[in-house]
């Protein structure tokens, strides 16, 4: 990936945990994507133990920045099937165990 | 009521009491007020204790004695003051307008007439209903009591209702009773003399039907109707924003796998990046750019050309092999059989001659075997006759497999004076030019332009570059080389990403005192470097030969002093070469006809050979520690083997015709028993050394286990022991005595 991600490697030979933000799927423009990703990182680091608060923060910021209505899901395990407005979807992993899905509809 | 004495002091005492009372009240609530001084009216009397205790009587009377008795008012109508009636003793404390009317009052009568009831009949009819009461009150003037009890208990509405109901009844009654009662009514009225009533009664009697009172709560509002604007509906539809569906499942293992995959991809990317960088470094900057620029068809045609070229090369080599079949066989198998019968002498067998048509007028200024491909060598074409300068120069890479045409030709715009090939990257060729600049060619990438070129204005030597030498790579893998030039400077050039970074290592100055110029400035004489040789073992140490004939031993660590100065020659030093087996030993040659062999830290040479003409080049043989070869300007090649003969060369052979040509350079092939010799007509001659010239050491019987390297070192040491002067020289005893002196 192009971004210089912070990498954290545990020296354990078997288990290597990566925590950098990893974008799985996105059709956002590059700038928006980067901005959203940074927002997600900020929110998830701020509310590391409270996914709901993180999701709320992301949603509100996204609404403010790119116009409502955004929907955000932050969680460790879930499934989803969504309809979204094209070029407004971001599905990424962060922190090694969190999945974040942001879309506008 | 008892009479009361009102004194003037009453009001004063009242005020005092009042304030006292309020003070008590605020005592606990508003303490802050206590501090304030009580405000008293100014005209309040100051009373003493006694006066205050005095009892003042008060008298109440039925009449208001304060009532003004003569009130007047100005009347504008009359223009005078007129007295207004006294308000009387009554004080109205509460007043309310009622809805009840007195039956006999004017208004009630009016009302009754409006309803079509004769007040008189009404009175009687009521009397008939409430007989007992009526009888009692008839004597009194009006029928008041009959209405009053009704109205008292009811609200106004109820009152009206009952009245109406009664009226209806009465109406019915009235119609029935009217005719007989009409007369007495009229009589009564006449009797009473009330004209107003008379007038009002008439219509009621006429209409017969009583008129209903208007209900003030039952009204109809007048409204105006305006035009309504016509309603029209208009619709528009936009294209909905494009939508898409997306679905995924998030599980911990999905996240983990994604991270693993991504990390692996990143690692791979890094690996590729590193490889690419490595490649780029090897191809060195510039050559990769034209490759990228040439796209599409051009690239395709280039590729086709390249393959065709490859085929042609193979074909060319085959033809050459056929043409020079006998030479190829000689090169491989022929050894001069006469050597067996000649002691201590050998011969050189000429093999191919390498020339390039375009550089036939050039002089071979330097030659170097490729360190990687034993059959490949680079030849520099420049000029040494400064009276006839040539415009261009070239570096050609020849291979023994193709004597007819060089494999690589790099044409430069100035004469090439020296060349060196990198040991690790055999395609990186650095050259020094007559105009003072240096160039690095990547012959693997392209032969059309140099990969690096020193800036021809700011970044170059101010004299002929006499020698360039690749230095060991820097710790971070950057290539660098040294160059020496006639301007007395030794520069270190580092190949950066796309430019040459230069550092001047040392500027060579002569040991003489500075010469004073005409205006008093002092100029230090600069030594013109003519050749350099890096120490093979010590990376810091190098030797520089100058045109003054000195050899300086320098270190890259010091930029101002020499480690040692050898006053070696009286003419320019042409070449210095370290012995391969003992790096303390080096050889130098000069235009003063001499070849000298030196030992480190020793001012005097170990060997001096005079060959009778300018020595252009001298080289130690790679296969033996005691063999070296030299060429002289008169076209001869000298091969010495110190182990065989310490005073004379074991082979002297003229290579070119003495009058026309001069031989300039010589070089041993590092693997094969072959010498190449360059002359001033742009021709390189290959010579094969006869067996006598390449005698290997035979291990002594007692020391069979020793390898060739050790034997060669021992051989050299033994030889040197003979010629080294002892550290302390003890003069032999003068046997002749003092008679001679």
TrEMBL record, chain A:
<comment type="function">
    <text>Force generating protein of respiratory cilia. Produces force towards the minus ends of microtubules. Dynein has ATPase activity.</text>
</comment>
<dbReference type="InterPro" id="IPR037177">
    <property type="entry name" value="DLC_sf"/>
</dbReference>
<keyword id="KW-0206">Cytoskeleton</keyword>
<keyword id="KW-0966">Cell projection</keyword>
<dbReference type="Pfam" id="PF01221">
    <property type="entry name" value="Dynein_light"/>
</dbReference>
<comment type="similarity">
    <text>Belongs to the dynein light chain family.</text>
</comment>
<keyword id="KW-0505">Motor protein</keyword>
<keyword id="KW-0969">Cilium</keyword>
<comment type="subunit">
    <text>Consists of at least two heavy chains and a number of intermediate and light chains.</text>
</comment>
<keyword id="KW-0243">Dynein</keyword>
<dbReference type="GO" id="GO:0005874">
    <property type="term" value="C:microtubule"/>
</dbReference>
<keyword id="KW-0963">Cytoplasm</keyword>
<dbReference type="GO" id="GO:0030286">
    <property type="term" value="C:dynein complex"/>
</dbReference>
<dbReference type="GO" id="GO:0007017">
    <property type="term" value="P:microtubule-based process"/>
</dbReference>
<dbReference type="GO" id="GO:0005930">
    <property type="term" value="C:axoneme"/>
</dbReference>
<keyword id="KW-0493">Microtubule</keyword>
<dbReference type="InterPro" id="IPR001372">
    <property type="entry name" value="Dynein_light_chain_typ-1/2"/>
</dbReference>
<protein>
    <recommendedName>
        <fullName>Dynein light chain</fullName>
    </recommendedName>
</protein>
From TrEMBL, chain B:
<keyword id="KW-0677">Repeat</keyword>
<dbReference type="InterPro" id="IPR015943">
    <property type="entry name" value="WD40/YVTN_repeat-like_dom_sf"/>
</dbReference>
<keyword id="KW-0493">Microtubule</keyword>
<dbReference type="GO" id="GO:0003341">
    <property type="term" value="P:cilium movement"/>
</dbReference>
<keyword id="KW-0963">Cytoplasm</keyword>
<dbReference type="GO" id="GO:0005874">
    <property type="term" value="C:microtubule"/>
</dbReference>
<feature type="region of interest" description="Disordered">
    <location>
        <begin position="1"/>
        <end position="28"/>
    </location>
</feature>
<dbReference type="InterPro" id="IPR001680">
    <property type="entry name" value="WD40_rpt"/>
</dbReference>
<dbReference type="GO" id="GO:0036157">
    <property type="term" value="C:outer dynein arm"/>
</dbReference>
<dbReference type="Pfam" id="PF00400">
    <property type="entry name" value="WD40"/>
</dbReference>
<keyword id="KW-0505">Motor protein</keyword>
<dbReference type="InterPro" id="IPR050687">
    <property type="entry name" value="Dynein_IC"/>
</dbReference>
<comment type="similarity">
    <text>Belongs to the dynein intermediate chain family.</text>
</comment>
<feature type="compositionally biased region" description="Basic and acidic residues">
    <location>
        <begin position="274"/>
        <end position="283"/>
    </location>
</feature>
<protein>
    <recommendedName>
        <fullName>Dynein intermediate chain 2, ciliary</fullName>
    </recommendedName>
</protein>
<keyword id="KW-0206">Cytoskeleton</keyword>
<keyword id="KW-0966">Cell projection</keyword>
<feature type="region of interest" description="Disordered">
    <location>
        <begin position="274"/>
        <end position="297"/>
    </location>
</feature>
<dbReference type="GO" id="GO:0045503">
    <property type="term" value="F:dynein light chain binding"/>
</dbReference>
<dbReference type="GO" id="GO:0036158">
    <property type="term" value="P:outer dynein arm assembly"/>
</dbReference>
<keyword id="KW-0853">WD repeat</keyword>
<keyword id="KW-0243">Dynein</keyword>
């Amino acid at each position: 990936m192009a971004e210089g991600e912070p990498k954290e490697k545990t020296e354990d030979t078997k288990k290597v945990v990566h925590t950098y933000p990893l974008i799985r799927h996105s059709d956002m423009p590059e700038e928006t994507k980067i901005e959203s990703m940074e927002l997600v990182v900020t929110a998830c680091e701020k509310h590391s133990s409270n996914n709901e608060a993180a999701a709320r923060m992301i949603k509100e910021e996204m609404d403010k920045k790119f116009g409502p209505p955004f929907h955000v899901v932050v969680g460790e395990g879930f499934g989803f099937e969504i309809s979204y407005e094209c070029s407004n979807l971001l599905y990424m992993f962060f922190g090694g165990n969190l999945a974040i899905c942001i879309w506008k509809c | 009521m008892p009479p009361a004495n009102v004194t003037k002091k009453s009001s004063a005492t009242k005020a005092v009491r009042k304030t006292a009372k309020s003070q008590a009240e605020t005592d606990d609530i508003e303490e802050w007020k206590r501090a304030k001084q009580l405000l008293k009216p100014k005209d309040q009397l100051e009373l003493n204790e006694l006066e205050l205790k005095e009892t003042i009587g008060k008298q109440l009377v039925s009449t208001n004695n304060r009532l003004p008795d003569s009130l007047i008012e100005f009347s504008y109508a009359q223009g005078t003051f007129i007295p207004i009636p006294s308000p009387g003793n009554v004080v109205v404390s509460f007043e309310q307008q009622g809805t009840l009317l007195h039956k006999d009052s004017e208004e009630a009568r009016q009302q009754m007439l409006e309803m079509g009831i004769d007040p008189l009949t009404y009175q009687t009819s009521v009397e008939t209903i409430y007989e007992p009461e009526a009888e009692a009150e008839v004597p009194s003037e009006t029928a008041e009591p009959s209405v009053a009890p009704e109205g008292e208990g009811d609200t106004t509405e109820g009152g009206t209702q009952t009245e109406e109901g009664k009226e209806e009844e009465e109406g019915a009654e009235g119609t029935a009773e009217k005719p007989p009662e009409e007369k007495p009514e009229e009589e009564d009225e006449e009797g009473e003399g009330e004209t107003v009533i008379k007038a009002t009664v008439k219509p009621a009697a006429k209409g017969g039907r009583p008129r209903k009172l208007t209900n003030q709560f039952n009204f109809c509002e007048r409204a105006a109707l305006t035009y309504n604007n016509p309603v029209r509906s208009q619709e528009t539809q936009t294209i909905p924003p494009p939508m898409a569906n997306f679905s995924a499942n998030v599980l911990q293992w999905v996240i983990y796998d994604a991270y693993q995959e991504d990390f692996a991809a990143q690692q791979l990317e890094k690996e590729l990046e590193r490889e690419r960088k490595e490649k780029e470094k090897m191809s060195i900057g510039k050559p990769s750019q034209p490759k990228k620029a040439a796209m599409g068809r051009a690239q395709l045609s280039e590729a086709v050309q390249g393959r065709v070229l490859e085929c042609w090369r193979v074909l060319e080599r085959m033809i050459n092999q056929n043409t020079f079949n006998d030479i190829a066989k000689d090169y491989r198998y022929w050894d001069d059989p006469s050597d067996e019968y000649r002691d201590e002498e050998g011969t050189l067998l000429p093999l191919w001659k390498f020339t390039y048509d375009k550089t036939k007028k050039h002089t071979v200024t330097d030659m170097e075997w490729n360190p990687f491909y034993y059959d490949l060598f680079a030849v520099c074409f420049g000029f040494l006759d400064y009276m006839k300068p040539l415009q261009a120069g070239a570096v050609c890479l020849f291979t023994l497999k193709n004597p007819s045409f060089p494999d690589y030709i790099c044409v430069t715009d100035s004469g090439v004076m020296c060349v060196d090939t990198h040991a690790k990257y055999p395609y990186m060729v650095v050259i020094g030019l007559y105009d003072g600049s240096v160039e690095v060619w990547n012959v693997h990438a392209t032969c059309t332009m140099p990969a690096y070129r020193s800036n021809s204005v700011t970044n170059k030597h101010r004299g002929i570059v006499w020698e360039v030498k690749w230095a060991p790579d820097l710790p971070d893998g950057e290539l660098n080389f040294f160059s020496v030039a006639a301007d007395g400077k030794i520069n270190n050039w580092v190949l950066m990403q796309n430019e040459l970074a230069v550092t001047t290592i040392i500027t060579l100055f002569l040991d003489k005192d500075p010469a004073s110029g005409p205006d008093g400035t002092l100029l230090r004489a600069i030594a013109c470097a003519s050749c350099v040789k890096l120490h093979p073992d010590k990376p810091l140490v190098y030797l520089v030969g100058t045109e003054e004939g000195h050899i300086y031993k320098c270190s890259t660590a010091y930029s101002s002093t020499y480690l040692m100065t050898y006053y070696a020659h009286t003419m320019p030093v042409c070449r210095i070469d370290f012995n391969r087996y003992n790096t303390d030993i080096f050889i130098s040659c000069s235009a003063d006809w001499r070849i000298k062999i030196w030992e480190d830290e020793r001012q005097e040479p170990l060997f001096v050979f005079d060959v009778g003409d300018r020595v252009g080049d001298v080289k130690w043989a790679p296969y033996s520690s005691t063999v070296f070869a030299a060429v002289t300007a008169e076209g001869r090649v000298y091969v010495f083997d110190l182990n065989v003969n310490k005073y004379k060369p074991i082979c002297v052979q003229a290579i070119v015709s003495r009058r026309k040509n001069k031989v300039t350079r010589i070089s041993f092939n590092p693997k094969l028993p072959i010498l190449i010799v360059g002359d001033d007509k742009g021709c390189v001659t290959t010579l094969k050394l006869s067996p006598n010239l390449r005698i290997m050491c035979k291990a002594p019987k007692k020391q069979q286990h020793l390898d060739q390297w050790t034997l060669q070192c021992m051989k050299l040491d033994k030889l040197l022991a003979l010629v080294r002067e002892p550290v302390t020289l003890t003069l032999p005893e003068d046997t002749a005595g003092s008679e001679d002196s």
